[in-house]
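Exercise 7. Given the encoded structure of a 165-residue chain, write a plausible sequence.
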C-alpha cells in the first residue's frame, strides 16, 4: 500500500511541476511579447463630413480634320455656332461639318436635304438657306437633335455608326 501512495505522490508532483512550468512559460511569453510588440496602430481617421463640389467640365473634344478645315473656311458660321452652343459648340460644328461642311446654303443633290442640319425634306426646316437663316437653322438642328437623340454626343455616335443622323 505504501508503494501505491508513493506512486500517486510522484504523479501529483510531476503533474504539479508540469502545470507550474506551463504557467511560468506563459508568463515569460507574455513578458517577451510586451517587450517586442510593434508600435500600436494609430487610430483610424474618422471622416465627419464629405463635401461634394461640382467641377467644371473641360471641353476637350477636337473636331475631325475635315471639320477643322470647314471652320477655317467659314469662321463666321463657326462663330455663330460657338455663340449658340457655348461649351459644346465643337460637337455641333462637327455634326454640321459632316453634314454640310458648315455651308448654310448646302443642298444634297441626291436627297434634297438642305442647310447646315441637312433637313429632309428641306421644307420642314422653314429657314432661309443663306447667312440670314443661320440662327433659324441652328435653332432647328438643336431642337431636332435633342428631341431625337437626347444630346449632341448621342447624335454624333449615331452618325459614327450610320453616317447619317
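Solution.
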Amino acid at each position: 500500500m505504501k508503494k501505491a501512495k508513493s506512486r500517486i505522490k510522484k504523479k501529483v508532483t510531476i503533474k504539479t511541476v508540469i502545470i507550474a512550468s506551463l504557467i511560468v512559460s506563459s508568463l515569460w511569453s507574455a513578458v517577451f511579447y510586451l517587450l517586442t510588440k510593434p508600435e500600436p496602430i494609430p487610430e483610424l481617421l474618422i471622416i465627419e463630413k464629405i463635401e461634394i463640389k461640382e467641377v467644371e467640365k473641360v471641353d476637350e473634344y477636337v473636331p475631325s480634320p475635315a471639320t477643322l478645315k470647314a471652320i477655317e473656311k467659314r469662321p463666321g458660321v463657326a462663330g455663330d455656332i460657338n455663340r449658340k452652343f457655348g461649351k459644346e459648340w465643337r460637337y455641333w460644328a462637327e455634326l454640321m461639318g459632316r453634314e454640310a461642311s458648315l455651308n448654310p446654303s448646302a443642298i444634297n443633290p441626291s436627297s434634297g436635304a438642305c442647310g447646315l442640319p441637312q433637313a429632309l425634306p428641306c421644307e420642314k426646316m422653314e429657314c432661309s438657306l443663306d447667312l440670314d437663316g443661320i440662327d433659324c437653322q441652328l435653332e432647328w438642328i438643336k431642337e431636332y437633335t435633342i428631341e431625337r437623340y437626347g444630346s449632341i454626343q448621342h447624335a454624333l455616335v449615331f452618325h459614327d455608326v450610320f453616317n447619317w443622323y
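Remark. The mean pLDDT is 86. Students should compare their own answers with the one above.
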